[in-house]
Amino acid sequence: MSKLKSIAELQALLSLAIEKTSFQEEPAELYQPISYVLNLGGKRLRPALVLMATDIYGVDVEKALPQAIGMELFHNFTLMHDDIMDDAPLRRGKTTVHEKWDSNIAILSGDALFVKAYQSIVKADAKYLAALMDLFNQTALEVCEGQQYDMNFETQDAVSMSAYLKMIKYKTAVLLACALQSGALIADASEEDQKHLYDFGIHIGLAFQLMDDILDVYGDQAEVGKQVAGDVLCNKKTCLYIKAYEGANEEQLKVLDYYFAHQDFDAQEKISEVMKVYAELDVRLACRNMMDEHYNSAINHLNSVSVSDDRKLVLVQFTELLMERVN
Amino acid sequence: MSKLKSIAELQALLSLAIEKTSFQEEPAELYQPISYVLNLGGKRLRPALVLMATDIYGVDVEKALPQAIGMELFHNFTLMHDDIMDDAPLRRGKTTVHEKWDSNIAILSGDALFVKAYQSIVKADAKYLAALMDLFNQTALEVCEGQQYDMNFETQDAVSMSAYLKMIKYKTAVLLACALQSGALIADASEEDQKHLYDFGIHIGLAFQLMDDILDVYGDQAEVGKQVAGDVLCNKKTCLYIKAYEGANEEQLKVLDYYFAHQDFDAQEKISEVMKVYAELDVRLACRNMMDEHYNSAINHLNSVSVSDDRKLVLVQFTELLMERVN
Predict the structure, then answer these.
(1) Is the pTM of this model over 0.90?
(2) Chain A / chain B CB contacts < 8 angstroms
């Protein structure tokens, strides 16, 4: 069996493959934004997951390369459209497509990129095609649903924790899960293994998102490179907020309602008042416990995959890499 | 062999099937616009073409029903996104999705509808799947390219006839062609037959679009239900305009440039001055000749399909129905 490839090796392989994927087609207005968004970089984690899930079975990762690239193309399509909907000026520190060109270009280039994702994913042996398509279609639909739930939450008063978990599962976790299962599928893994890898992806995705929520308020911001408590400032309903809202007494509820109703507060005042409520209710620990639960579930599913531990090493490393910011 | 189904029978069958396709899913903000746009009506011509192309081979049209519905879902997805890009207030006399809800809803519902189209199209025997996907992906990409060319033409000074024909081929004709070939593919038609039906679709699509251009200026407007010379008023570069531009002398060019540079003219003055140039250059006849050429090519391809003439009757009727406005 071939030596297991490291994450860095897989990322290098993917960068090369994505560079080689030519989008020098006509009309330029349609394809230039695609090249642009793909060259903004990013860690290529989703396609790396496809290849890892193939590699653990000792199957040549080249076999799953088109599906890996398909996941990356799809992910970038969602970024293009999400950035329009979120009115985001920047993506990975660079101007977003709808700002650099315009919204129409971002809509249509996104659509074309979505088709390109399908074109890449269907480059598989006929025997895998139906299962790959069903998995990907279901995932793509859930990603749309997740984005819609996320937009709905902005104007919703109360968001339940279960609704929140469903949203982050759909918006983030299912694509990681789909990537892993696709790689396993192409490696002819058993259905049980495919399911365990899918669930590993779901729980790792959830744990990662919960960690992201916690770090927004409690992380070392210099390291994270973000505005301190940016989620609080823009009234985003995160795990911390929802936990606080669930447990708040009348007075604490008043504070949350007051500060999350508007944006025009002194930033330091808002953050410190909200963090006071968070501290009183110990929501950091509650969310940390939820995160740990999903992390442990992920590891359990990975442990249940029927390959030797040394073949799982790269997935363990990946998990550590993803979660290292809180460890 | 079963009796050939009439267009009306196929349309009734499709209306029922599309009604039965439930979009009562959550979140409602994502799926209600899909139900809305599908219930605006329309003649269901694209899915009918899929079924016709299956029916001519005596194969049960039920076999191709998911692919037929997929074509209709895809078509409606393109309408949703095109209407945003074209800033269109109305579609089939009703408020467009981005006007009734908002642009974000129209983008995301459109994306979800696109996935629904794929979900329907992949409901085929495994042996057809790769060919169906390749054909559909290529078509979807060309439809995006066609829309981009169309948008480019708005700000382009001169548009060549070949560029124009490519645009209308991609924007309109390829989906008719794809629908026909998909139906034939599922009926196990030979590759030659599939190609002839595809080309029949291309040329019928081109002839139809050229007819539409001619009727905008020279049609019985009461019957067509459109603004007289609406294309001229909004400076649209149609076949008539391009022919005129190609053949114009210096003075005629001045008239065209003058009236197509702005929209703030007296409508009657603009129409009559532009139509004078069109008449001098006899562009109506030139475009009519182009249309006839494509119509004849379509019929030639249909004649080359290896089924008996009586099985082709419904496609002949379809062609007549489509083109009856100028006959």
Answers:
(1) yes
(2) 106
